[in-house]
Specification:
With 280 residues, the protein is an alpha/beta fold. It contains ten helices and twelve strands.
């Protein structure tokens, strides 16, 4: 076996960021694959994100993940963007190229739809209309992933209607921005209802969304994984809906980030999932 010549480094950049389970996950994979290195939380506010990203090559980082509030605002800092990032206008992974340039990628779109397919037997993106709450970077990735899998109609609701309208205009005619006040009634024929906001996360108020009108067969999904069951998902479970939290999305997108940085594709095993669940 060839001796490793460099100490491998990556991290997750955001603010706040200390709640992230990504360090535990990636450090487990580094150890499992015999790689010497470390994945760390990088608490960087909006004013420092450009300088922090530009410093990654000099510090020896292979790259980093991006979380709130940097998924959209960091795009102009990149030297190159993947076609998917150009399409959706959000990214969650930065890769430092051999020449020190920065590449922006988005693996959340694939991570999200893979999690639904894994956790809901027979799930199909084209099963019916989709209601999505939120219009930030995570919402953009989710919508793009669903469209790639054949979604025919995505209704987007956001408290700031301009953000929802911008998302819809960017992703095309199958995405429709509607007034926040119409979110309850819009779920009446939904096959999937998605919370892509931070509401329901630890320290945040619960999501203001009722499911009274939604068909019981509708899948209810939340991008949040801490807590494991948000009030929104708890209500959905009590009503009898299939529910999916954000852990599967985290795990699946992480596999692709790890491969992009370190050249190894790790597995999401039941033991890995249980390890992360035990920290929530």
């Amino acid at each position: 076996m060839t001796e490793q010549q460099t100490y491998l480094m990556a991290g997750v950049m955001g603010f706040p960021v200390m709640h992230s389970r990504s360090p535990k996950l990636h450090n487990h994979w580094l150890s499992k694959h015999g790689l010497i290195g470390h994945y760390m939380p990088l608490a960087v506010g909006p004013d420092g994100v450009e300088a922090a990203l530009r410093a990654l090559p000099a510090l020896g980082f292979a790259g980093c993940n991006l979380t709130m509030p940097h998924k959209e605002t960091a795009i102009p800092v990149m030297d190159r963007l993947s076609p998917l990032v150009r399409r959706i206008g959000a990214m969650n992974c930065v890769v430092v190229a051999p020449d020190g340039s920065l590449e922006g990628h988005n693996f959340e779109a694939f991570g999200y739809v893979d999690s639904l397919a894994q956790e809901v037997a027979g799930w199909r993106a084209d099963a019916g209309p989709i209601v999505m709450l939120g219009a930030g970077g995570g919402a953009r990735a989710v919508a793009a992933g669903l469209l790639e899998r054949g979604a025919t109609k995505i209704r987007v609701f956001n408290r700031t209607p301009e953000r929802a309208a911008k998302l819809a205009a960017h992703l095309g005619p199958r995405v429709e921005a509607l007034p926040w006040a119409q979110r309850f009634d819009a779920a009446a024929d939904a096959a999937l209802v998605v919370n892509a906001t931070s509401q329901g996360m630890h320290g945040q108020p619960p999501l203001d969304m009722r499911l009274d009108a939604a068909p019981i067969a509708a899948v209810v999904s939340d991008l949040i994984y801490s807590p494991r069951e948000t009030p929104f998902l708890a209500e959905a479970r009590r009503r009898g809906h299939p529910t999916v939290n954000g852990l599967g999305m985290l795990l699946n997108q992480a596999r692709l980030s790890f491969k992009a940085w370190f050249g190894v594709t790790p597995e999401v095993t039941p033991d890995v999932r249980s390890m992360i669940e035990a920290t929530i």
